[in-house]
Amino acid sequence: MSPEQPPASVDLPATHTAPVVITGATSGLGLATARAMAKQGIPLILAVRNMAKGQEVAAALLRSGVRVAVRRLDLANLATVKSFTDGLIEDGVIPRAIICNAGVQTFDRLQRSADQFELTMATNVLGHVALLDPLLSHMAPGSRVITLGSETHRGGLRAFGFPGALLDLQTGVHRHGLRGRRVLGRSWYPGREF
Ligand SMILES: NC(=O)c1ccc[n+]([C@@H]2O[C@H](COP(=O)([O-])OP(=O)(O)OC[C@H]3O[C@@H](n4cnc5c(N)ncnc54)[C@H](OP(=O)(O)O)[C@@H]3O)[C@@H](O)[C@H]2O)c1
């Protein structure tokens, strides 16, 4: 679809009751984001690979009275990504924002995803693309996609033959996916905002 074409059809309006999906909400920045949003009363879907950890985080967040659901999403396993997106669409749960936060960096030894892609590429890029792709056309105008990247590539780091700009690619791919839609995209490198 070219940027000039009308945006994809919108099935449900974004309302203040629609949830925000956060990938990797079980630790670090994802957890901090979930806590900050829960404090503001924003309904959340914690998209996590470890359900026990996710339930533990949700139990703590629920104490603030906010609506929190935990759904399984292993970005390094494309079948679970499809189950996650199918589940949301079937349940009529259309997020008002998706925060693509989960990420790994595997520089010490080559690791592969369930689908045999290099693990950093699979988790940070392919998994998130597979997550966004089926959901974007359902999201209402004004919905948001927020991507966390990294400045790592600036040091010229190379991981297993992929250019160090891997995480920039993540950002670029997401921007491309947003073209022609009325969903707003923001990319954020911790410590720097674009
Ligand atoms: N912290 C920094 O200074 C910094 C700097 C630059 C960029 N970033 C970027 O910011 C984001 C968050 O960083 P962070 O430091 O908060 O990372 P973190 O503490 O290591 O947390 C990463 C999160 O991603 C989840 N995750 C990993 N693999 C996954 C998979 N296959 N499927 C689903 N979830 C998965 C982890 O789940 P588990 O709990 O199950 O392990 C965890 O919740 C990352 O994208 C990172 O590249 C961070």
From TrEMBL:
SUPFAM superfamilies: NAD(P)-binding Rossmann-fold domains
Gene3D superfamilies reported for this sequence: NAD(P)-binding Rossmann-like Domain
UniProt keyword annotations, A-Z: Oxidoreductase
Pfam family, one: adh_short
Domain of life from the UniProt record: Bacteria
Alphabetized InterPro entries for the sequence: NAD(P)-bd_dom_sf (IPR036291), SDR_fam (IPR002347)
Homology family: Belongs to the short-chain dehydrogenases/reductases (SDR) family.
Protein name (database record): SDR family NAD(P)-dependent oxidoreductase
Organism whose genome encodes this protein: Kocuria atrinae
